[in-house]
Amino acid sequence: MRARDLLVEFPTVALDTPVIEAARLLAEQGLPGLMVVDGAGSPQAILPGPQVLWLAVPGYCQDDPALARVVDERHADTFLTSLGDRTVREALPAKPRELPVSDPDATLLELAALMARTRSPLVAIVDDDRLLGAVTLQTLLAKALDT
């Protein structure tokens, strides 16, 4: 099985997209992450869902989970409002990892190795600098379990 057999069209966002919009897209479509593209539509990064939470959850709650418990429920339920006008660019790691991009001829094992190495829930599939779509972790696992 090759990447071309597994790829699906996948939503993209730009670096300057408000991260709250990215969070809505993740939630509404049940996505594991989003592809971040430049103006030409070329993949620049993968934004995993937990990276949005990293930006939204106060640092003191990440450092000491017991502190999250002392925040009253009304305020705890609205933590995403802290994102304000922040952008996808701000949610990405300062030191980006290897970009999980592959070609349509990649095998299932090649895609799995790339996902594992980059810790990404999806791989962008590119041919001649054109984004064709993505292979998601769910699709990859489903196909690997079928064989």
UniProtKB/TrEMBL annotation:
<dbReference type="InterPro" id="IPR046342">
    <property type="entry name" value="CBS_dom_sf"/>
</dbReference>
<protein>
    <submittedName>
        <fullName>CBS domain-containing protein</fullName>
    </submittedName>
</protein>
<dbReference type="InterPro" id="IPR000644">
    <property type="entry name" value="CBS_dom"/>
</dbReference>
<feature type="domain" description="CBS">
    <location>
        <begin position="94"/>
        <end position="147"/>
    </location>
</feature>
<keyword id="KW-0129">CBS domain</keyword>
<dbReference type="Pfam" id="PF00571">
    <property type="entry name" value="CBS"/>
</dbReference>
